[in-house]
């Protein structure tokens, strides 16, 4: 499976949430793909998932850690970037994963990027 770098139009889901969410902000860190900002692993500002089926109440997303896990360096100096393999743990017990990276640039093992033909 290809591993995509996540950009500001990405969508994500929580294991216990009832809707998908987006990033609430994305900083210009000097690395753009398809005119969109790539998301660094310290960006935990994401929207709520409406309702938590684990606790049977409205979702008020709170991250357990201040960084996404399984991020990638990509050979850049700006920091590590979130990829489609990255996850974020919620204090309430949920696990957030990327549904759509928001772009078509693929990360390769050597830290190089390649573009794929969108289907």
From TrEMBL:
Pfam families linked to this entry: DUF4280
InterPro entries for this protein: DUF4280
Superkingdom as given in the UniProt entry: Bacteria
Protein name: DUF4280 domain-containing protein
């Amino acid at each position: 499976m290809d591993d995509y770098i996540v950009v500001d139009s990405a969508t994500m889901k929580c294991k216990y949430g009832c809707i998908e969410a987006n990033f609430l902000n994305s900083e210009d860190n000097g690395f753009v793909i398809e005119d969109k900002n790539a998301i660094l692993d310290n960006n935990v500002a994401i929207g709520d998932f409406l309702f938590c089926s684990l606790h049977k109440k409205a979702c008020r997303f709170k991250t357990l850690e201040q960084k996404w896990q399984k991020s990638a360096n990509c050979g850049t100096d700006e920091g590590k970037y979130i990829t489609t393999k990255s996850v974020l743990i919620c204090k309430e017990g949920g696990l957030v994963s990327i549904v759509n990276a928001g772009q078509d640039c693929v990360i390769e093992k050597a830290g190089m990027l390649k573009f794929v033909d969108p289907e």
